[in-house]
């Protein structure tokens, strides 16, 4: 009897030992945030962890930035557990407002920041502050000076595209005439690059005489006023290059009010509905059209990749399309002018 009891006890101890050894392989540690760690399961969680990405344009409200918004939303909808928080100041001149907004996102501890810098030098410090807090950053459209090596930029090659804008103006004017230039905001990297490219392009055309340069402050009303002043001071002006959406819209209205629509050549930038109507009517000769949908789409995909895999991401030239009345109905042009998540121009 005692022998049977001893054998039974030994069997029970053996079973308990097997359970203990087997169970050790399934032990998981819980860190301070409540997440499990120490197994392949944790890698799976990292790859699908819910992420909130702050997406901040230079300013809310314009057609251009709303297309960037569309692109970012489209990318988020195709990713697992990714949401965006879209927010921005109401005017591109509100540099302090944008700085404060971005610093609030850093304090909140968002998972990533995807933004367009209103001022290249001022915002460089904010990018550095975010990355120091282990928050990945990418820039859309407009970067900083300096541009941190770990902050990729998704943008147009503004210098090369503005050189082409000078070519378009020269072609329309047969290489001669008085012209005006409407940059938008000094200190913005995109503005400064476009100015550099346009002036560089003009060196090829000595018979194009630049008689006026006025900033629009990225405001259509300001652009209207300064263009009206230019037309009064130079009634024989032949052409205008406006370097962003508000500048083009304001300049076109001023030319129209002066009774010079179709007589003064306008080369513009971007593709707001009023700009497209201007090309269709002949009031605007050509537009340098960026791909803001692609900027929003590719930058959002890339920052999620940076967060989830630790990948290093390079700068990306998102390209331009030169839109004139002759190619407006081309399918590729239409894909850029009327982007959708079902058929994204990416």
From TrEMBL:
Chief site of localization: other
Cross-referenced InterPro entries: Peripla_BP_I (IPR028082), SBP_2_dom (IPR025997)
Top-level taxon of origin: Bacteria
GO cellular component, one term: cell envelope
Keyword annotations from UniProtKB, A to Z: Signal
Classification via Gene3D superfamilies: 3.40.50.2300
GO function terms (MF aspect): carbohydrate binding
UniProt subcellular location: Cell envelope
Keyword Signal: yes
Ranges for domain Periplasmic binding protein: 53-308
Family to which the UniProt record says this protein belongs: Belongs to the bacterial solute-binding protein 2 family.
Protein name: LacI family transcriptional regulator
Protein species of origin: Reticulibacter mediterranei
């Amino acid at each position: 009897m005692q022998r049977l009891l001893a054998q039974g006890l030994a069997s029970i101890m053996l079973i308990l030992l097997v359970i203990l050894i087997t169970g050790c392989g399934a032990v998981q540690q819980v860190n301070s945030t409540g997440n499990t760690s120490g197994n392949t399961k944790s890698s799976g969680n990292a790859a699908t962890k819910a992420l909130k990405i702050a997406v901040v344009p230079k300013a809310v409200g314009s057609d251009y930035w709303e297309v960037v918004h569309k692109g970012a939303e489209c990318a988020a909808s195709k990713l697992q557990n990714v949401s965006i928080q879209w927010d921005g100041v109401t005017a591109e001149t509100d540099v302090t407002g944008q700085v404060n907004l971005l610093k609030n996102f850093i304090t909140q501890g968002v998972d990533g920041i995807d933004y367009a810098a209103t001022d290249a030098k001022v915002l460089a410090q904010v990018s550095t502050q975010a990355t120091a807090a282990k928050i990945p950053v990418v820039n859309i459209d407009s970067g900083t000076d300096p541009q941190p090596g770990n902050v990729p930029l998704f943008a147009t090659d503004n210098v090369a595209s503005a050189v082409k804008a000078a070519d378009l103006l020269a072609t329309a004017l047969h290489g001669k005439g008085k012209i005006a230039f409407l940059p938008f905001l000094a200190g913005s990297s995109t503005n400064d690059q476009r100015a550099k490219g346009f002036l560089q392009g003009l060196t090829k055309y000595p018979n194009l005489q630049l008689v006026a340069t006025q900033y629009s402050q990225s405001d259509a009303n300001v652009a209207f006023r300064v263009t009206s002043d230019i037309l009064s001071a130079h009634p024989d002006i032949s052409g205008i290059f406006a370097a962003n959406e508000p500048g083009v819209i304001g300049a076109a209205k001023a030319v129209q009010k002066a009774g010079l629509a179709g007589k003064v050549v306008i080369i513009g930038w971007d593709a707001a509905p009023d700009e497209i109507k201007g090309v269709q009517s002949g009031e605007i000769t050509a537009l340098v059209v960026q791909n803001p949908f692609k900027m929003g789409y590719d930058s959002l995909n890339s920052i999620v990749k940076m967060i989830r895999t630790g990948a290093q991401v390079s700068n990306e030239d998102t390209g331009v399309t030169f839109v004139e009345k002759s190619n407006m109905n081309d399918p590729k042009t239409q894909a850029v002018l009327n982007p959708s998540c079902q058929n994204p121009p990416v």
